[in-house]
Known about the structure:
Pfam families: EamA (PF00892). The chain crosses the membrane at residues 50-69, 81-102, 114-135, 147-164, 173-194, 214-237, 249-269, 275-295, 307-326, 332-351. Helices cover 62% and strands 4% of the residues. The chain is mostly helical and 368 residues long. The chain has one domain (54-194, 207-352). Helix 7 runs antiparallel to helix 14 and helix 10 packs across helix 11. The chain is globular and about 50 Å long.
Amino acid sequence: MTNSESPLIRDVEHNYGPIPRTSVICQHDGATVKESNRPGVLAGSTASNAGMLFIISAQFFGACTSILVKMLSNLDPPVHVLEVIAVRTGITFICCVTYMIIKRIPDPIIGPKGVRTLLVFRGIAGFFASSGFYWSLQYLSVADATVLTFLTPLTTAVAGFVLLKESYSVKQAVLAVCSLLGVVLIARPPFLLGSPVVIPEGHSVPEATPAERLLAVGGCMLTVLGNTGAYISIRAIGKRAHPMHVTTFYYLWCTIMASVGMCVFNVPIVYPRSWTWILLLVMVVVFGLATQILLTMGLQRETVSRGVTGMYSQVLFAVVLESLFFGVIPPLLSVLGAAIIMSSALCVVLIRQTPTCRGNTGTDNSCE
């Protein structure tokens, strides 16, 4: 079953994506001919996996953003999650709209016709994903929070199969489960394995109460649901909207909902009291923007089931960065988990199917 059979994916006037450069194997007059418009094997491999490379790059910047948010929550006084989201997304929204106006991208605020509902849904789902994850970072380590959110690839792949009619092979399912095992081995959450990470002297971590930890786990589950909705909507939008459209709607609705949340829950505003506060916030804005743009570009080029597998790389970056900034030393199991994740990701790249064309004439371009 193909993507065109899904009611969420329809043709519209604009196509903001480049014509994909693919290599196909065609049957012509009984002979097998390999046609390619890509120069060189290395360049062709890079082009065919560009979406995966964008996604992995996004995970690095996403892990950096998580570390920065963790630092902001440890300041005195701590910055509330809703304030971090409102300030970060508000500034970035203005930057995104300004960029689109300068570059003369059509419909910079309302988005292209035919996908506006999906854009709004992407923005709202993205807000719940970000707020849930940022909330969990107040009571969980970055590694623990990350491992819980990696239920997302499993839920997203199933949602892509049901809603977008995308294929989902048994091999992909097995590799996804193997990758999830690698994530668990790396993060080693105490509530699953009963063995906390090793923290050297001088790097104390505030101990959360069972109730706070339970709330943090609930926040991660909210992130899983939000990410699933966001990734499905991005894939359904495809190249019918510019990546900046998708990114702008995310920041717009995050700003709106975070601001409303601050008013409803009477969240006090924490004003900058040091250059560290300002520097951390600026870095959150820049790294968060890079994460959203790269992730959008990646999911526009990859199927959901394949693309989310590359997201497992975030836990690798999270473990390394948490070790550098918070002194958390990854155990031997983390090394084993890293090997499992990278091996699974490599297998996903290698099993990517190549379309086959058959025809009796040179003008027959039907592919399977």
